[in-house]
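Exam revision sheet. Question 4 asks you to relate a sequence to its structure. Input first:
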Amino acid sequence: MSVSVQEQDFDIGAEIDALTKTRTDIGALVTFTGLARDHAGGKPVSGMTLEHYPGMTEKELERIEAEAHQRWDLQASRIIHRYGHMTPGDNIVLVLTASAHRKDAFEAAEFLMDWLKTKAPFWKKETGPEGPEWVAAKASDDEAAARWKR
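Answer key, structure tokens:
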């Protein structure tokens, strides 16, 4: 298990290699990369800023990653979430889940992404032609996350 909350970009290939190198117990690796877009809600976006609560954010990501390991048979996982200013095309988040079988890896990755989208302590501000605007939570994201409640 491994969590990083960082300002700098990440190398997806290097992260995959670090997670899987010398591992022969992994039969499935699921990767999800979230990217900054040039539009949101039909509006153009020139950039976005992600803020977080240092210390608390890392602990919450570690907690949810541990929960994923309790719910699914995972050999390894990695979560990287960036903060700071980003422009369209930049990496925002990386979730890697590794298991012996694909079902566990896919479900754990979906669970982690649904949680990151709805519950992670990050705040997003998008900048467009009308200036910066804080982004509100979406009901559709909450509905997707609700399926994981115990």
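Marking note for examiners. The two ends are 22 Å apart (CA to CA).
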